[in-house]
Amino acid sequence: MEVKSPIVNVLISTYNGEKYIKEQLDSIFNQSYDNISIYVRDDGSTDSTLDIVNDYISKGKSVRLIPGENIGFGKSFMSLLKIADDGDYWAFCDQDDVWYEDKIKWAVEYLETQDYSRPLMYHSSYLLADENLENGTKSNLWNQNYTFAKSLTEVIHMGFSCVINSEMRDLMLRAEIENISSHDHWAELLAVKYGRIYEDDRVASIHRRLTESQSSSSLYARFRWLKGAMKGKSEILPVAKEYCRVFADNRDKDWYIANLFVSDRYSITKSLKKALYPHRWRSSISSEIVLRTLMLIGKV
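== Glycosyltransferase involved in cell wall bisynthesis ==
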């Protein structure tokens, strides 16, 4: 009797993605692994994205389209994770990228050898390229000392390269969807704390950077983060707050670390505890210095 291969649900949140969505969808349909279902939630597009996706559906492609209002990418992906309830593995997918044909195959081959009762997250290497998929540089994230504190303050494993199992999905969905602004930040934090992350050094996708300033270096992302922090828009607060709410019955040392970031007003005590924390918050020294400075002045 033939054993059926595991079902992999590919989750795509689209927003005005008409320029590249066809190229991405084609790369998914060209996967060497064939038991794939695609879920697309549109986050309020005003261009022809919906028409493009509907064209695939009319041709009999396995795509479920969920039109929606604009709620942001994190909430959109979390909504998809909840909707796609029939499956074995879940893969997050950005609308602008291109997958290599063995991306899902490699993920399933690894995940099938692991203890399925444990939350698992598989992460493959990728190329960072310009909008023409040229001048690609390989991601280099391996062999880092991942800790709860680091995972709380920075996202190292990008969602578009991640595939998770059902235990990880269930753990992520303990959150209230409206409280999650970044699905990959939430996933990484939980995987480091309660599960396991496997890093595959093989390149499985190309991640498209859409402007010259973004593709030139990581300085753009750091500047955007700094600008947001100075305006009081900390990316750490939402994930820390939701972690403390969901896991309030497990108040270990990591819970209290997360709780340092949960405050509606400036607390000199919490600011000093964060700024003088004896271990590293971030992988980069320069980012570490900036973060601790922001902690002191109550911006993070």
